[in-house]
Amino acid sequence: MKHYSVLLLLVTGWFLFVSMKREPVAAPKLRLSEYGFFTGNLRDQVPAKGVTPYSLNTPLFSDYAEKSRFVYLPEGTSAEFDPAEVFRFPEGAVLIKTFYFPKDFRNPSKGKRLIETRLLLHEKSGWKALTYVWDEAQNDALLEVAGETFEVSYTYTDGKKYRHQFQVPNLNQCKGCHNLNETLQPLGPSARQLNGYYAGWERSPSGKNQLSDWQERQLLINLPDLATVEKAPVWSDEASGTLPERARAWLDVNCAHCHRPGGPANSSGLHLGVHNKDTTLLGINKTPVAAGRGSGGRKFDIVMGKPDESILQYRIESGDPGVMMPELGRSVMHREGAATIRAWIQSLGRPAR
């Protein structure tokens, strides 16, 4: 990987600086393979002992990248159930997420290109984010602190070939999204997102609901009766929820990590989490706090029945870096997600069927 020796010096120097400012911290490993999270060929992502694969009902969109998710829990420890927020993970836990692009989304057997693996490590001082970029041979991934941009190409489910940029974030950009009350926090593994079956059937430890399975294997404590646990719909599956439910689930995972109380965009007054019941905070007939170029000349965040007059729709569909939302994590529009939000806004104000 390019600039490897320079990277080593930068990382070592950074951690020496940190250690002088507060209690000593362990320097991160320079290769993903050094953690021992996977067995066999690293590229196959076969979890080692103590590492559990999981999936989310409605995941964050990241420029059409697919993701493999895993959690490592130290032996004898468990995550603690929370009804609304991300689970409380023990010290030593690691959340592992690999981003990849299938060569052909219609036929996974044609292979895939691994781009990066992100780690969230729960240390004594809190959560720490690290990113590892895969080498060209797909044999290992090296620590990347400054970020990097790749050109990706693939055949999508519609049979069309696409080519665009994919950005690996630098460490500061990770904090831009994983930020709650100015502390780094995980985003995905919550009760509503894990309340379902693991999507990777070939690696599922059982055919059970993920929450039930975690409880039985003592990976999760304090799980109440499963029938009482909230369940996020799959935004793209009409059988999993109504249009408003699926649209709100999409907004919750793609926007609410910033647009929520305590989030980086809290001052906007736009709160897009699924638990917000205030229609004004949701954006309906709400004027933006700071209009500017991001409004596209529109007056309200959401105009019921009129997506083309709604700032929310305009920013979701924009490809302008100074306008588009989310600000980080995408360079292309999520076509299907934008269509779902458009249909939802069009439906607002109509009598329920």
Structural class: alpha+beta
Biggest sheet features: 6 strands, antiparallel
The neighbouring-strand order within the major sheet is 3-4-6-7-8-9
Give the CA-CA distance, first to last residue. 57 Å
| Low-pLDDT residue intervals, each spanning 5 or more residues | 4-9, 14-24
Average residue-wise pLDDT: 89
Q: What integer value in Å does the Rg equal? A: 21 Å
- Percent strand equals 15-25%
Q: Based on DSSP secondary structure assignment, what is the total number of beta strands?
A: 14
What is the helix content?
Answer: 10-25%
Helix count, per DSSP? 8
Write the H/E string, N to C.
Answer: HEEEEEEEEEEEHEEHHEHHHH
Number of domains: 2
Query: Which outline best applies?
Result: globular
What does this entry show, briefly?
This protein has 353 residues and is an alpha+beta fold.
Please provide a written account of the structure.
- It comes from Ravibacter arvi.
- This is Repeat protein (TIGR03806 family).
- This protein is α+β, with helices and mostly antiparallel strands and about 350 residues long.
- The protein has two domains: about 30-230, no CATH class; about 240-345, no CATH class.
- The protein contains eight helices and 14 strands.
- The strands form five sheets. The chain has a six-stranded antiparallel beta sheet, covered by helices on one side.
- It starts with a helix and ends in a 6-residue tail after the last helix.
- Mean pLDDT is about 90; it is low at about 5-10 and about 15-25.
